[in-house]
Amino acid sequence: MFLGDYHIHTPRCGDARGSYSDYVEEALRKGLSEIGFSGHCPQYFCPPEERKRESAIPEEELALYIQEVESLREKYRPSIVIRLGLEVDFVPGKEEELQSIVDFYSWDYLLLSIHYLDRWPFDDPRYLSGYKERDINEIYKSYYQTLITGMKTGFFDAVAHFDLPKKFGFRPTKAIKEEAEALQVCREQDLVVELNTAGRRKPVGEFYPAPSILTQAQELGLKVCLGSDAHQPEEVGKDFKEALALLRYLGFDHIVGWEKRMAILYPIP
């Protein structure tokens, strides 16, 4: 059975620990067919003096990241396929700066992520107070509006942790129409939805996206890939058995793998 994990972070980011080989060896132990490193992209949206390694690959080290993963590909070629991607923070108005990162290398895939709303890092536990200072429905509305803008750039291949604002358990109090609009745009742009298992390890205790969103995605004919969002080796492939069971239950019959920006479909047994 084919099984790929396409959301694995790199020790070159300040928020991940362990060596590259540690992540690969864990994938081998868990029987994965393929993995993809997707380090946090450089903070192109910040002035140079404000850019931090704590959650991003420094821009001057992006070539080193590529060299390191390319070296791993050769080392482990007989045992496992290793893909090279990025998790890209999208910030509206900074598309021109982002273009240089998109064009920097022939990536296997690029994940669209939203971690900032008007410079507020809403998924950082150090800034939880922001949820008390804002209307929860407006947070979700703004999030999905930003996500839609990112989708329409054509820069990306998949949407990571689709409903990330729920991370700490804060839920909207009414239906957010922009959520459904985002799924429609996903279809129009032929984007894949990532089933991200990290949500199970967060306060919300639930995969990203929620089953209700996955149900809509399935009805729209959207494709799904798997990602553990591993920041430490033992998280590689975490909860994938349960993720596959959920996908089967909801009617999905394929998962996606990646090669040079092409989505490749593999059957779910």
Give the beta-strand count: 11
| CATH class identity | Alpha Beta
Measured on Cα atoms, how large is the radius of gyration?
17 Å
Output the strand order for the largest sheet.
1-2-3-4-7-8-9
What can be said about this structure in brief?
By secondary structure, the protein is α/β, with parallel strands linked by helices.
Topology:
Elements: E1 4-8, H1 20-29, E2 34-40, H2 62-76, E3 81-89, H3 95-102, E4 109-113, E5 116-117, E6 120-121, H4 130-133, H5 136-151, E7 158-159, H6 177-188, E8 192-196, H7 211-219, E9 224-227, H8 240-250, E10 254-259, E11 262-267
Helix pairs in contact: 5-6
Q: Your description of this structure?
A:
Strand 8, helix 7 (211-219) and strand 9 (224-227) form a beta-alpha-beta unit. The protein is 32% helix and 20% strand. It has eight helices and eleven strands. The strands form three sheets. The chain has a seven-stranded parallel beta sheet with strand order 1-2-3-4-7-8-9. Helix 5 runs parallel beside helix 6 (177-188). The chain has a single domain, classed as TIM Barrel, CATH 3.20.20.140. With 269 residues, it is α/β, with parallel strands linked by helices.
